[in-house]
Amino acid sequence: FFKRLNKLTICFRTSTVAIKRRSRVPGVMITQFVEEVPEGMSTPDFTRKPIALTIQEGKLAFFKSMVSGVPKPNITWARNKGPLEDPVKYISRYDETMEEYFLEIPNVRAEQADTYKCFAANEYGRAVCTATLNVIEGPKRAAPEDFRKMVVRTKPQLKKKEGEIDPKFWEVLLSSPKKDYEKVCMEYGVSDFRWMLKQLNLKKKEREEEQAKVVEKLENLKHIEVKRDGSAEFELDMELKNPNSQVFLFKDGVMVPYSDDGSGKHNLNKIGKKYIFSINDLMPDDAGLYQVDVEDANCFSTDFKIIPVEFVVKIQEVKAKEREDAMFECVLSHPFQKIVWTGKKIPLEQGDKFDITVSEDHLIHSLKVKDCAQLDKGVYTAMAGITSCNAWLIVEADNDPNMRGGKASRKTTTAGGGGENLAKIAAEQSAKLQKEKDDLDAARRAQSEKDAADAARRAQAEKDAADAARRNCEGVWLKDGQLLTNEDGLKIIQDGASHKLVIENCKKDDAGVYSFEVDGHKSEAKFTVSDPPTFNMDSLREFSKPVIVRACETAEWKLAFSGGDPMKIKWIKEDEELLEGLNVKIEQTDIKAGLCITDCQRRNCGEIKINIKNDYGTLEATSRLIVLDKPTPPQRPVEIVETSLTAIEFKWKPPKDDGGCPVKHYILERQQVGGSKTWTNVGELPNDPLKYRDTNVKPGKRYCYHIRAKNEEGVSNALETEDIQAGILCYPGPPSAPKVVSAFKDCINLVWSPPINTGGTETWGYNLERRKKGSNFWSPANLDGPIKDTTFALKDVTEGAAYEFRVSAINISGVGEPSPPSVIVFARDPKMRPQFTGKMKSFMVVRKGNTVRFNINFEASPLPDIYWLKDCVPLSKRVTITNSDRGSQLLIPTSERSDTGIFTIIVKNMVGQETFSVEIRVTDDPKPPGPVELEQNVPGTVTVTWTPSPDEKKDDRLHYVVYKRDSVKRTWRMVADSLFNHKFTVINILPGREYNFRVFAKNDMGLSEPAVSPTWKTTRRKGHITEKYVKGLDLQCPPSFLLRLKICTAPPGYECYMSCAVRGDPKPHVTWYHNNVSLNTNTNYLITNVCGVCTMLILKIGPKDSGEYSVIADSPLGRAECSTKLTVRGSISQSQHNKMLFFCDRNNLQFKHQV
User: Fold this and answer.
1) Closest CA to 741 of 632, 652, 823
2) Which of the residue ranges 18-27, 256-265, 457-466, 486-495 would you say has the lowest mean pLDDT?
3) pLDDT tens-digit profile of 495-550?
4) What global pTM score does this model have?
5) In b/e form, how buried is each residue of 410-447, taking b as 16+ CB within 10 angstroms?
6) 417 pLDDT exceeds 90?
7) Distances in Å between the alpha carbon of 847 and those of 284, 875, 949, 1010?
8) Are domains 534-628 and 739-826 of this chain identical in fold?
9) Are 644 and 727 within 8 A, CB to CB?
10) CATH dotted code for 9-136
11) Beta bridge partners of residue 767, listed in sequence order
């Protein structure tokens, strides 16, 4: 019943067909979209496919292909790992002369190595092939010397001045996160945080503007810190706008070179967008301000400070015994918050193994190694800044003879450590540092006191000199050479050496040259009384209001002012001076100025200024002139939005000048060209939107329109449009003949192409018509309205009937010419091999007497024949079979144990067949086993025996479960399960306790009632034990099987256990074989070996698992082997199928065996 379809796979869906086949060209797969390709047409295929390519990096790579197919296929390219949308990296072109398609990859790179695909597709199918591109590394070219790198660049460094903040403070602060601001301020002695934040925001804004020129993104700035390997590192994440921009490293304003391979003093390691700068072999002169610049923009600054710390007391060698603690201690010359400890070049951290402590003065640092072992010995190092010291830890083995073969106990003693001596040295060092600090503070105070005393002496000397001058100075005041006295309305005031002349209520007569003479010395100055121009405030308020006039009217301005002569007055309009002329009149007096503009026009609108100037100042006032007039005509061009059979729509632009007030309406008039000469008023349109749709038009006629703008001052001149023609009747052409995509008994799916000639307008939809074979009458198929798409699923069909279809397009003019008729298609399902649908059980357990009902769902076309078998033979009359188009049901109204078996369904039609088997087991609650007897054959054990359950012969899956309860725990505990015999030996039976046992029979339905044993009790005997000398025995023996494998028969779909017992010393290696093939590495088999009991579990039995199984035990003393056979029940061999003949119709089944 089985047919193998080589090189052809047919997939049926609800609306499409996909037939896959291979091309004659190797490596090309073709997918056909339709069931039958029309005559003269063909699916795409490759006559030359792209070949795999291996090319050097930087060269031009290209793939070339040639295709065939009618209509001409469309070629597209793709790759597995990304798109091909970049037109610079991937160029797709077609050579019309050679009819070849190319995909070019100029300047190929390593990341473009991939598998590329070429697709050729038309409406009947698609072909695809692949080609691999391998990119190998090109020869490395020596980079040309960059002489700019040979020039040592420097940056100007501001030096710290007395009493000012160190300039380094701002550089470090600009590169620090907000959480570190307080720390940086404390380090540089800045306490005014509000002032600092204000200045920082200004500097940060300037710095970001510089960085924005060269850097796209800057983040994750980490300041310099000393690493455990003795180097210093700082890093930042930076994305450059130009990848070729140069990155410079400066130290204290001087550029330092760096290497990329980590071999230099200063190095740069770049990982993606992360830049990591490192400094190796640290020295004291490596301290300073490090800055990273991109071109001329500073991006990062960090201050590297090296504390001049030294080891006053270095760590010493420590000898410790196993399980004892070891202590390393050192004393530093300056306080250090945390030093780095390493053991055998591995960093050490606080934890269960190591205890790191620091004294309160941060001078004594200690490391305790807890519970020393031989693995802990080695060199330990203490690193403080760039200074380090090291010492050995020697771990001595514990030679206590009493602990031989065991683990020594934990010791509470500690080896090493300086104790009180280190504390004394640290105290002396702390006192020394405090004394140095006190001496420095005292020197600063002394210097401050000295500077204050010097300043006081200088101030006293200056005061004494001033007092002496004040006592001896007498002088006179003069105006234009005339002596002045207090009687002239002036005040002359003398206060020691200070002389003042006060003039109250200045007048113009007070102007002149004033001088002061004393002891032959003279000083003079010129005094002028100014009178700048000023405006009268009421007059200025009126002048500032805008002057609004209508066209051809007169505008006037007047403004009163005052001020000293001479006065110069200018009138200015839009930055140009107004001069008196035909339309401009200017009036001017000593206290008033006026301007008059006659016959005002829209061009006169604008700002009017008056500028008044004299020798003492300038004054300016501003007003505005607004002239109202009717608007100008709307602006050209008039844009035509739509011209159709029923409407003309156009829009226009507003007037360039609205006349000083907004346009409220537009007035439209229309005239038919070639008809009446009169203009018809269309009406007034609102200001928004500026478009009009005229629906009162006749097809093919031309129209002209007048458009006028209207505001409060009047109506503009007309804008006349060009002639606009309404649409003409133009029906669409015929679409292509409908193509049948797929056909079923209740649905036919059609597709067609739009018409080439659309009639110049948009296609609104399509009408589909049909007729039966042999008929001349076409009936509409789309009763719900025009079809909007070029596909349609027709469901109103008669099963088995033959149809033809045609389609016509619809536009604004109407329905166009119909297409040619389609090929004749039958409304029936496509041929389909039977296949089962839904989830199905392969095993069922049913209680005796209950109904057995098993449903099978399938799909097949044409309708299949259905056969049911039980254990490879036809069903009895007790079984009822009900078949339908999509399923079959097996029913046994009242089940018996004899109904147990493997039921097989065979679904077959002309395309193929499918089978499925289910095991149905009819059983009942098991009956309990017979009386239970107890017997002791070995001390400490009890052998439990019982009479088998009456159901054992009826149910091959029935087994036994044994439970135990003693007088101490008083709970039932299972001691054995899955027993297929009638005896079990219970171990660990203790004297003096009472034991009870229960035996249950168990099958697929559950447990039976228990069979209860009599109480078992043994008395505890007291006696003396005499130790006897036992002569040593040689227990070595070759492998041998205590329990061999048994022959197994199992139904398919079940689990299968195989077990055996093997002995041997030394322990033998056990290997399982199936038909002489090793199973030890096969994951489908679960193999265990516990204390010589070897078991193998087959999770799900199938026909392929039948055969010979063997176990081989190997050891150096010999080899043992045992084997068995596994038979799988219910499997139908091919030879048995060939000997069976089936005669059936839809409802009956006859079985006949061929002799």
Assistant:
1) 823
2) 457-466
3) 777 788 888 878 777 888 888 888 777 888 888 877 788 888 888 889 999 999 99
4) 0.32
5) ebeeebbbbeeebbebbeebbeeeeeeeeeeeeeeeee
6) no
7) 93, 20, 18, 20
8) yes
9) yes
10) 2.60.40.10
11) 808
**For 311-398+413-429, which CATH superfamily applies?**
Immunoglobulins (2.60.40.10)
Q: How many CB atoms lie within 10 A of CB 749?
A: 19
Using the predicted structure, report yes or no on whether residue 1115 has a pLDDT greater than 80: yes
Using alpha carbons, select from 525, 521, 524 the residue that is nearest to residue 473: 521
3-state helix, strand, coil in the chain (%, to 5): 10, 45, 40
Is the Cβ–Cβ distance between 108 and 57 less than 8 Å?
Answer: yes
Output the CATH code of domain 739-826.
2.60.40.10
Residue ranges of E strands in 712-824: 714-715, 719-720, 724-725, 739-743, 748-751, 765-772, 779-780, 791-794, 802-811, 814-815
Q: What is the pLDDT of residue 1148?
A: 38
For the record, the structure tokens of 825 come out as 């298609």
Are 471 and 498 in contact by the 8 Å Cβ rule? The answer is no
Per domain, the residue ranges of the chain are 9-136, 158-304, 311-398+413-429, 534-628, 634-716, 739-826, 832-923, 1035-1155
DSSP string, 1105-1140: G-EEEEEEEEETTEEEEEEEEEEETT---HHHHHTE
DSSP 678-738: SPEEEEEEESSS-EEEE----TT-EEEEEEEEEETTEEPPPEEPPPEEPP--------PPP
Q: Which residues contact 626 (CB under 8 A, 6 or more apart)?
A: 546, 547, 548, 549, 605, 660
Which pair of tokens denotes residue 58?
A: 């930087």
| Highest mean pLDDT pick, 459-463, 885-889, 1033-1037 | 885-889
Per-residue pLDDT at 161: 55
Residue 577 to residue 569: CA distance in whole angstroms: 11
Q: SS3 of 805, please?
A: strand
Q: What whole-number distance in Å separates Cα of residue 223 and Cα of residue 175? A: 8
* pLDDT at residue 82, rounded to an integer: 84
Confidence of residue 629 (pLDDT cuts 50, 70, 90): very high
Interacting residues of 793 by C-beta distance below 8 A, sequence separation 6+: 15, 747, 748, 749, 750
**Cβ atoms of 79 and 116 closer than 8 Å:** yes
Query: CATH number of the domain at 832-923, please?
Result: 2.60.40.10
Which residues contact residue 343 at a Cβ distance below 8 angstroms, ignoring those fewer than 6 apart?
354, 369, 376, 378, 379, 380, 381, 393
pLDDT attached to residue 1022: 66
Q: Could you tell me the pLDDT band of residue 86, with boundaries at 50, 70 and 90?
A: confident
Its CATH class, for the domain covering 1035-1155, is: mainly beta
| Beta strand pairing call for 1118-1128 and 1048-1050 | parallel
- Give the Cα separation of 319 and 327 in Å (integer): 10
Cα(268)–Cα(294) distance, integer angstroms:
14
- The amino acid sitting at 453 is A
Given this structure, which CATH class describes domain 534-628? mainly beta
pLDDT tens for each residue of 793-841: 999 999 889 999 999 999 877 899 999 999 999 998 888 899 998 888 8
- Cα 219 to Cα 178, 274, 293, 716: the distances in Å are 13, 10, 15, 63
Burial class (CB in 10 A: 0-12, 13-18, 19+), 552: exposed
pLDDT digits (tens, 9 = 90+) for 290-322: 888 888 788 888 888 777 788 888 888 899 888
Residues in Cβ contact with 821 at an 8 Å cutoff, skipping those fewer than 6 apart: 737, 804, 805, 806
Confidence check: pLDDT of 73 > 90: yes
Task: Please give the residue that has the higher pLDDT: either 977 or 470.
Answer: 977
Domain 158-304 classified CATH 3.40.1360.10? no
- DSSP letter at 486 equals G
Which pairing describes strands 547-550 and 555-562: parallel, antiparallel, or unpaired? unpaired
Residues 737 and 822 sit within 8 Å (Cβ to Cβ): yes
Give the homologous superfamily in CATH for domain 634-716. Immunoglobulins (2.60.40.10)
